[in-house]
Amino acid sequence: MRPVFLLVLGSISALAQPFTAGIKAGVPLTDFVNSVESGPSTYTSSTHRYIVGGTAELHLPLSLSIEFDALYRSFQYNGSGNLVDVLTTSHTTGSQWEFPLLLKYRFHFPVVRPYVDGGVAWNTLTGLKQTVTQTGPLEGTTASGTPTELQHSTTAGFVLGGGIDIHAVVLHISPELRFTRWNSAQLSALNGAFHSNQNQAELLVGFTF
Hints:
8-stranded antiparallel barrel; elongated; disordered N terminus; single chain
């Protein structure tokens, strides 16, 4: 009877585990794109130092939980090239949506509980806009929603992270260092002067109830 009682008690405890949700924000520790000067082409980029979004977590038995995030950040980059007597400049803006699905384990400590997590993530680029201006014999400006450097609008990767969960009455505060490795570069120039970073590191803080 004792094993059956423990199994029933464990099942009731599992059903009683809460579902928490809230917001998550932070800063990227790596640049969204890597750019160098290569021959007649030059790229410069500006990484916007913020990440913000929503988070939800389903708490399971054995100190495990499943977390799903929807994280947003924006980016921009500029390009220029000189071919004979034609100067071409471009300005590109866009947004990145990141959707990690993680399995999390919390260690047994009172109030402050360290944790590790890992899983998969999907990434999609939205709101892309590129304005290209040419000077010289072929003067003019064109705008497009498909940048010439775009290789993949979506990609996937794996995620590893770790942090601490601070439980303050009904609020959970969870600072975390997270690393993501994407399967492919979503943006890339043919001459190799520019590509989006496949290695991504972030410092995030979650606030859940």
